[in-house]
Amino acid sequence: TLPGALLAASVRQVFKEIDVNEDRAITQRELSNWFNFQDIEYLKSNAKEHFVMFDKNRDQSVSWEEYATIAFGSTHTDVCKEVYNDKTPPEFSELSKQVQDAITTAVRRWRAAGGFSMSQEEFTGFTYPELF
Description:
It contains seven helices and two strands. It starts with a helix and ends in a 5-residue tail after the last helix. Helix 3 crosses helix 4 and helix 6 packs across helix 7. By secondary structure, the chain is mainly alpha-helical. A two-stranded antiparallel ribbon has the order 1-2.
């Protein structure tokens, strides 16, 4: 727990952030806008963390192979590559329907967000399309 003075200072700071018209009262709209802003900032931060995690070779882009290896596991990397290339390997039919759907959906969304290799902004759009 925070000491009383530090807690009070933190609360005052957050209050000032929320009370954008500085009338010393927080309206429902101000509170809603603040929560929306916090949500967006969290999603952007989370997308950046995921980008770093998925960019295994640190080339400032995430390839489909890097994404698929982490998202679906190294045992499914080859299957994901084949599906991405519009092929259906025999191993694909051995996967559960849930995994098949997840891979197919990821391929569709990956293509829509940017293609084979994505920058951080494209990856953010792939991860959180509601931000765009």
